[in-house]
Amino acid sequence: MPRIDSTPDAKTRILDAAERLFMENGYAATSIRMITGAAGVPVALVNYHFGSKQGLMEAVYERALGSRGGSRVSYLDKLELDAAGKPIAVDVLVDAFLSSALRLTRKDTISGEVFKQLIGRAFYEPGPGTEAFFPAEYREAVDRYRQAFMRTLPHLSQDDVVWRMYFFVGIVAYAMAGKDVMRMTETYSLADAGNPEGIMARLRPFVVAGFLAPEGTLPTAVGT
């Protein structure tokens, strides 16, 4: 039986290869054999260090976040502590989420770029395996905000709040990933294109208005 190289260097090579291949190909299209081939290690070493492909993806995600791992909800924790059980205003919750996203999309570090591209792929590459790619930690952070919005907007059903969160998080992920698939920023030479702070500032009033909008109903079809 071949000896399994379990040195820290081998583990780092796996993470480096996985990070690059996930960014280039997406989660679903990247196989364990592709990763181990690029890292120059046996396939068994992925299971040894990470347990599974999803475990490896989580490790890549955590490494990209580094010490900023808790930043997505730390400000929300403080807001809820200060509120002492009272609802937090919609604009304050939106600002907290956007501020957290901005901290994760800074272009001054490689990890920030990695996080942006990985989250962008999670949203815009549907297909088998993609649902497993989306980090559990990020889902938990989103759910914390869902609960906060539901306390603030008790007149809305959970479905309405979740749909608004879905639109909100999707738009933020779109902006974070820099995937202008419609090429609108290029076509119209928009100011702030490519500037995360400027994009988030323009997004804020749009999102706040969306959360404060009346409960949505589908229009009646003509002729019915």
UniProtKB/TrEMBL annotation:
PANTHER family: HTH-TYPE TRANSCRIPTIONAL REGULATOR RUTR, TRANSCRIPTIONAL REGULATORY PROTEIN. Pfam families: TetR_C_30, TetR_N. This is TetR family transcriptional regulator. Residues 31-50 bind DNA. Keywords: DNA-binding, Membrane, Transmembrane, Transmembrane helix. The lineage of its organism: Bacteria, Pseudomonadati, Pseudomonadota, Betaproteobacteria, Rhodocyclales. The chain crosses the membrane at residues 161-177. It comes from the Bacteria. Residues 8-68 form the HTH tetR-type domain.
